[in-house]
Design goal:
about 150 residues; two-stranded antiparallel ribbon; 5 helices; about 45% helix; globular
Length: about 150
């Protein structure tokens, strides 16, 4: 596990769909869905944002963060905007950790929540519970040295 250099507020589910913005100036106006938030390592949110679950590949098979830009370009843009350097090894560790955590969450609670009607999003949660094998495949690929 990487050592924590600088504690930061970590959202732990920062992705498209969990923030609002104003259309006229494209400014962030709110960050939503904070139930996993805590103080931790900012690399975890970067790793979550680059999850294969939320991205896609271009016609050449290159992974695009949210279908928009290559991962290295995303990292470079983050470093430029934040003026903070990312440790790619730490990001990778959190990519594996996040996939492990997500798989456990999906396997352990997704079906139960959907079946017992514990949320107004039963259909979505039932669909998400089926993603556990995809997330575990991504984690295996990461452990074997792939993306």
């Amino acid at each position: 596990m990487p050592s924590l250099e600088t504690p930061a507020i970590v959202h732990s589910d920062y992705r498209l769909g969990n923030f609002l913005f104003t259309e006229h100036d494209m400014q962030l106006s709110a960050i939503l869905d904070w139930e996993l938030g805590r103080v931790g390592d900012r690399h975890q949110d970067i790793a979550w944002t680059t999850s294969g679950t939320f991205g896609s590949v271009d016609t050449d098979g290159n992974f695009l963060v949210y279908g928009m830009l290559p991962e290295n370009e995303f990292f470079d843009s983050y470093e430029k905007a934040s003026r903070m350097t990312l440790c790619r090894k730490t990001v990778h560790w959190y990519q594996v950790y996040n996939n492990f955590s997500l798989a456990i969450l999906l396997i352990g609670s997704g079906y139960r929540v959907a079946r017992n009607g514990k949320t107004h999003q039963d259909v979505l949660v039932a669909w998400l519970s089926g993603l556990s094998h995809v997330v575990l495949d991504q984690m295996l690929e990461q452990l074997e040295g792939g993306r």
